[in-house]
Amino acid sequence: MPKLTVDGVGEFEVPQGKRLVAALTDEAGIDQLHACGGNARCTTCRVEFLAGEPDKMTVAERDLLAARGLSGIRLSCQIACDHDMTVRAISRFAGSGRKDAGSPVAPDIQPPPQWVQK
Questions:
Q1: What is the mean pLDDT of the chain?
Q2: Radius of gyration over alpha carbons of the chain, in Å?
Q3: Contact call for residues 87 and 12 (beta carbons, < 8 A)
Q4: 102: left (phi over 0), alpha (psi -120 to 50) or beta
Q5: How many whole angstroms separate alpha carbon 29 and alpha carbon 2?
Q6: Tally of CB atoms within 10 A around 29
Q7: SS3 category, 59
Q8: pLDDT at 19 over 90
Q9: Helices assigned H by DSSP within the chain
Q10: Which domains can be identified in the chain, with CATH numbers?
Q11: What pTM, to 2 d.p., does this model score?
Q12: Which letter, b or e, does each residue of 58-94 get, where b requires 16 or more Cβ atoms within 10 Å of its Cβ?
């Protein structure tokens, strides 16, 4: 099982292949935002990698980050926990002013991923 370390929170074992956004909420108990339901449409699920950043990303993540002019972050909804990683959760429900953290997240990456090198 991959190990997920969340800065300032702790270390957690995560089922192989589980979406990072779901691991943050389920295993780490983080109030991670995911306003679009984990479909790479909003960037509210962003995290900063401190170690173990994947070397590939989905086309949906790449295009959305580029369209928003964002760098140095990743979208947790577009990442599978398939190796050890350390992240800083930077997009949290607390203090966001939103009515909830977001719609339920499907178990598989959505939209169906097309992978590119980061």
A1: 97
A2: 13
A3: no
A4: left
A5: 17
A6: 12
A7: helix
A8: yes
A9: 20-26, 59-68
A10: 3-95+111-117 (3.10.20.30)
A11: 0.96
A12: bebbbebbeeeeeeebbbbbbbbbeeebbbebebebe
- Quote the tokens at residue 15: 């089922």
pLDDT band at 44 (very low <50, low <70, confident <90, very high): very high
Single out the residue of 62, 32, 63 nearest to residue 47, CA to CA.
32
Assign 114 to helix, strand or coil: coil
pLDDT at residue 54, rounded to an integer: 98
Backbone angles phi, psi at 73, to 5 degrees: -130, 165
Q: Which residue do the tokens 């909420």 mark?
A: 25
Q: In angstroms, rounded to a whole number, what is the distance separating the alpha carbons of residues 89 and 32?
A: 7
Under 8 Å between Cβ of 1 and 16: yes
- Could you give the CA distance from residue 46 to residue 33 in angstroms, rounded to a whole number? 8
Distance between CA atoms of 55 and 83, rounded to whole angstroms?
Answer: 11
